[in-house]
């Protein structure tokens, strides 16, 4: 593990960035999932939110947008992907392929993605079970189930 | 399996689209990997090439670009992802998450991605072992090893 030391307070402050992105997405009528890519010194390298609706882009998940926003990086070992929701196979594949060292997840109740698969493959995984993340996603799924199912290919 | 019937000649003609994309990428100084997303009737829904160098976008793999180019689709079960090279975890995660029914791969010699993992999870996988795909990628890796390793996070 090459990730730097970080504590629960760091995780919460990073998650706040992802939650702000998710809220902005909700206000735009989009899928309310946000993410941030955090560097080894705790700096925000990139941030983003799901933009399926806003851009008509089915590959624009929160995690992929945060990753793109960070631009080309020489290494991802010391970075942390922070996301409001358990990452799908697409976004988990991103974390694994690029060797992102740590994953911080807001919640895994509304969608059980591949965070356990990443943990099995050496990624440090922290699940925060954040009440605000759960609430945001629950409301969205109840209001727009078809959009949600489209976003995860179901 | 919901993919439509297709034969070796179809696979070769689809691969030609991906190869044309890869060649265009090489001419631009980029990573020469191309892809196409093909619909159930054999129509090209989207096509693209790796654009890491061209756009400074580390998420712009051939497969993700072809997927984006196709826009939002109601279902991917009948579609085929065609790519010049075995897909990495990121692009394999894309195929699995969205339920793309079939994967046609130009070659797996220069990079052994997760095509077998996809086959284990129900995707119909065809490896063509195409000599032109092998040659293009071999030359690229020999000429620009650092760029190649950056592209796969190594």
Automatic annotation (TrEMBL), chains A, B:
Coarse class of the protein's main subcellular location = cytoplasm
Keywords from the named record: Cytoplasm, Hydrolase, Metal-binding, Zinc
A Pfam family this chain is assigned to: dCMP_cyt_deam_1
Pathway listed for it?
A: Pyrimidine metabolism
Which positions make up the signal peptide? none
Sequence ranges assigned to domain CMP/dCMP-type deaminase in this UniProt record: 9-125
GO CC aspect terms:
cytoplasm
So which cofactors does this thing need? Zn(2+)
Q: Which terms does the UniProt entry file under GO BP?
A: nucleobase-containing small molecule metabolic process; pyrimidine-containing compound metabolic process
Q: Extract the PROSITE patterns matched here.
A: CYT_DCMP_DEAMINASES_2 (PS51747)
Spell out the subunit comment: Homodimer.
Among PANTHER family, the record links this protein to: CYTOSINE DEAMINASE, CYTOSINE DEAMINASE FAMILY MEMBER
Protein name according to UniProt: Cytosine deaminase
């Amino acid at each position: 593990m090459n990730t730097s030391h970080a504590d629960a307070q760091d995780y919460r402050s990073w998650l706040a960035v992802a939650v702000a992105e998710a809220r902005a997405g909700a206000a735009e009528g989009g899928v309310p999932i946000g993410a941030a890519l955090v560097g080894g010194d705790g700096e925000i390298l990139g941030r983003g939110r799901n933009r399926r609706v806003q851009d008509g882009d089915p590959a624009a998940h929160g995690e992929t947008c945060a990753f793109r926003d960070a631009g080309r990086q020489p290494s991802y070992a010391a970075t942390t992907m922070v996301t409001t929701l358990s990452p799908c196979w697409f976004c988990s594949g991103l974390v694994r392929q690029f060797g992102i060292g740590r994953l911080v997840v807001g919640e895994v109740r509304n969608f059980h993605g591949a965070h356990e698969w990443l943990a099995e493959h050496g990624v440090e995984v922290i699940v925060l079970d954040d009440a605000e993340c759960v609430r945001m996603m629950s409301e969205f799924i109840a209001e727009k189930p078809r959009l949600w199912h489209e976003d995860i290919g179901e």
